[in-house]
From TrEMBL:
<feature type="transmembrane region" description="Helical">
    <location>
        <begin position="666"/>
        <end position="688"/>
    </location>
</feature>
<feature type="transmembrane region" description="Helical">
    <location>
        <begin position="700"/>
        <end position="722"/>
    </location>
</feature>
<feature type="transmembrane region" description="Helical">
    <location>
        <begin position="486"/>
        <end position="515"/>
    </location>
</feature>
<feature type="transmembrane region" description="Helical">
    <location>
        <begin position="729"/>
        <end position="749"/>
    </location>
</feature>
<feature type="transmembrane region" description="Helical">
    <location>
        <begin position="635"/>
        <end position="659"/>
    </location>
</feature>
<keyword id="KW-0328">Glycosyltransferase</keyword>
<feature type="transmembrane region" description="Helical">
    <location>
        <begin position="913"/>
        <end position="931"/>
    </location>
</feature>
<feature type="transmembrane region" description="Helical">
    <location>
        <begin position="572"/>
        <end position="591"/>
    </location>
</feature>
<dbReference type="GO" id="GO:0016757">
    <property type="term" value="F:glycosyltransferase activity"/>
</dbReference>
<protein>
    <submittedName>
        <fullName>Glycosyltransferase family 2 protein</fullName>
        <ecNumber>2.4.-.-</ecNumber>
    </submittedName>
</protein>
<feature type="transmembrane region" description="Helical">
    <location>
        <begin position="266"/>
        <end position="286"/>
    </location>
</feature>
<feature type="transmembrane region" description="Helical">
    <location>
        <begin position="453"/>
        <end position="474"/>
    </location>
</feature>
<feature type="compositionally biased region" description="Acidic residues">
    <location>
        <begin position="946"/>
        <end position="960"/>
    </location>
</feature>
<dbReference type="InterPro" id="IPR029044">
    <property type="entry name" value="Nucleotide-diphossugar_trans"/>
</dbReference>
<feature type="transmembrane region" description="Helical">
    <location>
        <begin position="535"/>
        <end position="565"/>
    </location>
</feature>
<dbReference type="InterPro" id="IPR050834">
    <property type="entry name" value="Glycosyltransf_2"/>
</dbReference>
<feature type="transmembrane region" description="Helical">
    <location>
        <begin position="375"/>
        <end position="394"/>
    </location>
</feature>
Length: 960
């Protein structure tokens, strides 16, 4: 049961005092409301009336409230704005009798605005000695700490942005001499009732934020004064946008503040410039949205755009301008001195940056220094190893072999192959490209003068970049300064990376290099949007480069959400860029009934022999034991000794990894081991998935990418084990690194021994004769016939200067059946390679084939027999002219006319452009967020502080 403050007011001298009606707005006030009512009862100068307005409270705070005398209760539906509640209360409040003073005041309070006992008396005393003051405000202090100032006056910048003159400062009386202000907060505001009615209260278009400031500005323009009363103190639990709400999202907060600013800007704009302001609302909002992304405030993007559209297409500006013009008595120059100067705004911004910088500089010191604790040396050692291993590539503009081909020679062609569109590979088809083509397009764009050079640079930098990423990842989980060096060495010489390099699996190389960075970014994603966006980009690149890792990546993402669920809002969006990349391909493969084909390796399909489960368990992606099988073949003991020897060489790392679970950081070590087991399971599964066709057979998914995940988990766990070991730690680490190096030594010597599939090239795929023809006809077709060891022929059709790496698509490599054009091509090749009565001219014409290239046969009797038969059949056909032997085989030219091939419909081209735009928006936003921004310490320009003098009524100096 509450007692009305109006019932306990003092009777004497009532006629000599102005009438005050308190308006108390409550919205799920909880414990605040009772305290505020008690504070009203305790006032030394009691209000003459009280109107409590309940805005849809559902917490029962106003259920048992009982008011009597001149106090009343009004209930409004939930969601009504604060200003509307005050307007309703003013209409419900009693009007002074004719024999009472005409000077009436409204005292506006929220449920959290508990006033000090003398608050009303102090404000009435202040306005009594200053009759020109129509609006007065108290000093708002924190509810939990009354010595902390929440708000004490409001103002705006030159562009209309609202600012609190004092916020979250310790109250030492330092601002008490500043009384004239542009505006005051709604909580605790004392306003003359006649002025309230004349100005028609708060603007309905400003439901919460800046409603009181806008009202105060209109009061000043009407010729009145606005002042703060430092002796009057009223509590506040938070800003007005949080009134009655448990939580306000960042997007909503930005929208409310920005919408209020834009509305006030249009309301105050000169009539001649109003149209210009209106036209610029949405374009400026788009630009500011990009700025929010750069500043790592992605939640503000939607709020910024929503505010612009709401103001641009709302109806509140016209009504507000009409109301403001009706009451204006003075010009804007009257309040100009009360605005916040740019110097003051800059001072606030630099102060906030200094606070953030101090927080960063006070962070714990790094456990190891990259420059001082061996990090740079292990990276340099890896660079030297890369040069020694891949020295034939140093002067080469391109590389071919294994899963590699040169890239297209122009950046435009690279991006033309990205996304949904026409693909000229084979007989041509319309559909989505592999996500990896986007990675190649970006890589080739960096080396625009020679796109294929980008592939060479990636191969050469793979070892040092893997060492760099592993060093930082190991430093994250260890404390000894030298342990990251061991971890970097182990991860760099992992058989998964060495095998990918020597077999030309470019995607697997990129995935291995980026996995440590992805792990670091996911672990740090809760700290900032920069880390989260970096994780999203890395997630997309790793998934595109090694699609077989999609299950591992998704499991890791889900685990990160569950483990860090309290701060998971940034990690939720990590897979979004990857989803945009993969969605067209996933839909296409599902429509074909082959969803597992999404996991196929990008690049040139190459036959991969499946290693055994034991070889996978010790990290070997190929059954050749990292080259030891060939190196020891002359000894005759390879089959019996190699498994045991390789297991012994892998044993130190395994023992350290398992032993780490026994230490005090067992939880982190256990998580790393789970990651290793997940990678191993994925590798085993990859050897049982055959979705890619290579000639007449199918091949497994490359297991090396999954073994890279396993290697990362094992290295992290082993380094934790080294970190917790006693005195034997250095020796153990050195032994593990040496044993791991011995295990892959023959693979590093492959280039010297001539046992590598990687071959330097000038970037030309076909012969110079075909290239010359392709200059005039970019769509010229070349039928490539490749004899196989089983007596069959592998057939492909290449356009222009030949197939490139970015032309490849897994839709073609994983096709379950031949298309009609594919069947026609196979029939043509089979009949050309043998004497028959088949007429090839219609097929040659419709397929646009002008050349036939017969590849050299491998060292096999069956293949050589097929080659000789095909060479004889084509060479004796009068419709073909033998060009001669080339570097890639025997070339024949068809002398007949051929048709120009189709290059996709207009709808296909439009879809391609639209998809590129979507990619640009998604990845552009992620890239802007991922760009690191750090606060810079303020540079002192002067030790002279700008004067802060109080302003007078209409002749003020700047209040700065």
């Amino acid at each position: 049961m509450q007692t009305s403050p109006a019932q306990t007011r003092s009777a004497p001298s009532r006629s000599a005092q102005p009438r005050v009606t308190a308006v108390l707005v409550a919205a799920n006030g909880g414990g605040h409301l009772d305290r505020t009512l008690d504070a009203l009862v305790a006032q030394t100068r009691h209000p003459d009336g009280l109107v409590v307005v309940d805005i849809g409270s559902s917490d029962g705070s106003t259920t048992d409230i009982a008011l009597g005398g001149s106090a009343g209760l009004v209930r409004l539906p939930a969601g009504r704005p604060f200003g509307e509640a005050v307007a309703v209360a003013e209409r419900e409040a009693a009007v002074a009798d004719a024999d009472e003073p005409s000077d009436e005041w409204l005292w506006i309070l929220g449920h959290d605005n508990a006033p000090a006992p003398d608050a009303l008396a102090e404000m009435l005393s202040a306005v009594e000695i200053a009759p020109s003051v129509a609006v007065a405000g108290p000093k708002l202090v924190a509810t939990e700490d009354p010595s902390l100032i929440r708000a004490f006056g409001e103002s705006t910048t030159r562009f209309g942005r609202s600012l609190g003159l004092v916020q979250d400062e310790l109250d030492q009386g330092q601002h008490d001499r500043h009384t004239d202000v542009m505006g005051v907060a709604a909580g605790g505001m004392l306003v003359r009732r006649s002025v309230w009615r004349d100005l028609r209260g708060f603007d309905p278009a400003l439901p919460d934020v800046d409603a009181a400031l806008d009202f105060c500005i209109r009061a000043r323009l009407a010729g009145h004064r606005v002042a703060v009363v430092p002796e009057a103190r009223v509590t506040s639990a938070g800003p007005i946008e949080e009134f009655g709400r448990k939580r306000v999202s960042e997007a909503r907060r930005v929208r409310l503040h920005r919408q209020a600013q834009l509305h006030r800007r249009l309301t105050a704009a000169p009539a001649g410039l109003l149209w210009l302001h209106w036209l610029l609302l949405v374009p400026f909002a788009a630009g500011r949205a990009v700025g929010h992304l750069v500043a790592k405030h992605p939640a503000a993007v939607s709020g910024e755009l929503a505010a612009a559209f709401a103001v641009a297409f709302g109806s509140g500006v016209r009504r507000a301008r009409k109301n403001a013009a009706r009451t204006r008595r003075v010009g804007w120059t009257a309040i100009e001195p009360l605005r916040v100067s740019w110097r003051r705004v800059h001072e606030r911004r630099t102060t906030s940056r200094d606070v953030e910088l101090a927080r960063v500089e006070d962070a714990p010191i790094a456990r190891a220094s990259f420059l001082g604790d061996g990090g740079v040396w292990v990276v340099l050692a890896a660079a030297v190893l890369s040069v020694v291993t891949l020295y034939p590539l140093l002067s080469s503009p391109a590389v071919t072999g294994g899963g590699l081909l040169p890239l297209s020679t122009s950046v435009g062609r690279l991006w033309q192959n990205v996304g949904y569109g026409w693909h000229s590979i084979g007989t041509g088809s319309t559909g989505p490209s592999d996500p990896f083509t986007a990675v190649l397009a970006v890589l080739g764009s960096v080396f625009a003068w020679s796109p294929s050079t980008g592939v060479v640079v990636v191969l050469l930098l793979a070892l040092p970049m893997a060492a760099l990423g592993a060093w930082f990842a190991v430093r994250k989980v260890t404390t000894r300064t030298w342990v990251p060096v061991v971890g970097a060495a182990l991860y760099t010489i992992a058989p998964a990376l060495v095998g990918a390099l020597t077999t030309g699996h470019l995607g697997a190389v990129i995935a291995h290099v980026l996995l440590p960075w992805l792990l670091l970014a996911v672990l740090e994603a809760h700290r900032s949007w920069a880390w989260a966006s970096g994780a999203a980009l890395l997630f997309a690149v790793v998934a595109a480069s090694a699609p077989s890792l999609l299950p591992v990546l998704l499991v890791g993402w889900v685990v990160s959400l569950v483990v860090g669920w309290r701060r998971a809002h940034r990690r939720v969006f990590i897979p979004v860029p990857a989803a945009v990349l993969f969605l067209p391909l996933v839909l296409a493969q599902v429509a074909r009934g082959n969803p597992l084909a999404v996991l196929a390796d990008p690049g040139v399909p190459s036959a991969t022999r499946a290693p055994s489960a034991f070889q996978l368990a010790i990290g070997q992606p190929l059954p050749d034991w990292s080259g030891w099988l060939l190196a020891t073949s002359t000894l005759g003991l390879a089959a019996a000794v190699l498994p045991i020897a390789m297991a012994v060489l892998a044993l130190p790392v395994a023992l350290l990894a398992v032993g780490a679970v026994l230490g005090h950081r067992w939880a982190v070590a256990g998580a790393a081991l789970v990651l290793a087991l997940l990678g191993f399971a994925t590798a085993v599964a990859a050897t049982h998935v055959t979705v890619t066709g290579v000639g007449s057979t199918t091949t497994i998914v490359w297991p090396g990418s999954a073994l890279s995940v396993s290697a990362l988990g094992l290295v992290l766990a082993a380094c934790i084990g080294i970190d917790v070991l006693p005195r034997t730690a250095p020796v153990t680490g050195i032994v593990a690194a040496v044993f791991a190096g011995v295990a892959v030594a023959p693979a590093f010597a492959a280039s010297t021994l001539g046992d590598t599939v990687l071959q330097p090239t000038t970037g030309r795929v076909l012969s110079a004769y075909v290239n010359a023809e392709a200059q005039a006809n970019p769509d010229v077709g070349t039928l490539v016939v490749d004899p196989q060891t089983d007596g069959s022929l592998a057939v492909s059709l290449e356009r222009g200067q030949g197939s490139t790496l970015d032309d490849q698509t897994t839709l073609d490599a994983t096709a379950l059946r031949l298309s009609s054009k594919g069947t026609e091509l196979a029939t043509l090749a089979g009949n050309l390679a043998s004497r028959s009565g088949y007429d090839p001219e219609p097929a040659l014409r419709s397929l646009g084939i002008s050349f036939v290239l017969l590849d050299e046969a491998p060292d096999d009797a069956a293949a050589e027999a097929v080659h000789d038969r095909a060479a004889g059949a084509i060479g004796q056909d009068a419709r073909f002219t033998s060009i001669g032997e080339t570097a890639t085989g025997q070339l024949f030219h068809y002398e007949g006319d051929v048709d120009r091939v189709a290059s996709g419909s207009a709808a296909t081209q439009a879809t391609h452009v639209l998809y590129l735009v979507v990619l640009g928006i998604v990845f552009g936003a992620a890239a802007l967020l991922a760009v690191p921004t750090a606060p810079r310490r303020r540079r002192a320009t002067s030790n002279v502080i700008e004067a802060e003098e109080p302003a007078t009524t209409f002749d003020e100096e700047r209040d700065e």
